[in-house]
Design a protein that fits this description.
This protein is of the alpha+beta class and 203 residues long. Helices cover 42% and strands 19% of the residues. It has a domain of 58 residues. It has 7 helices and 5 strands, in the order αββαβββααααα.
Amino acid sequence: MSKQKSSVRESLETPFREDQIKSRPGNFGQQLAYVEGHAVIKRLNEALESSWSFEIIVHRVLESEVLVLGKLTCELGTKMAFGGSLVTHAKETGEVVSLVGDLKAASTDAIKKCATLLGVGLHLYDANNKPSSKPATVGTPKNGWARLTARQLAAIYAIAKSKSLDKDDVQRLSVRDFDRMPDFLTKSQASDMIQALQNDVPF
């Protein structure tokens, strides 16, 4: 890697300032750290001198969520990642509030995911005990971050149903606590969610 590209990558990977880092409730009272989309875009503009582009390759509108596949291109290469957002419904009528707004949120999510692949905000993944670019240490389960099994997914919905929670409730909780839909949870995250539901841990 050239000295110039090395400098760019160093700028991208610089930890965000404390005042830029937000937090939201996670499972078991855990606080999850994150940065807002505008902070990520500003970092990309500063590190890449605004010489980057982003486009939506594919988008899908499903019953309860919208999904986009985004592509970010810059001097360091091209990165692609999925982004998603729940479809927002009016509480009173149940009608969709704004699919455009939901797609915008999903697009911002995709930009953030692509930026992560360039090193932006990786320190937050460590802070949330999520996978990072660091190699696994001895004793770390090899499948700790593998995708959940069909049995785990079925158990989540079955337990939720027994607690009078519907599909939308489960998806909302999953996105809030793990930043992803239930189908895309890891085995570890699925186990945490199952335990929380079984123990009536408040969400």
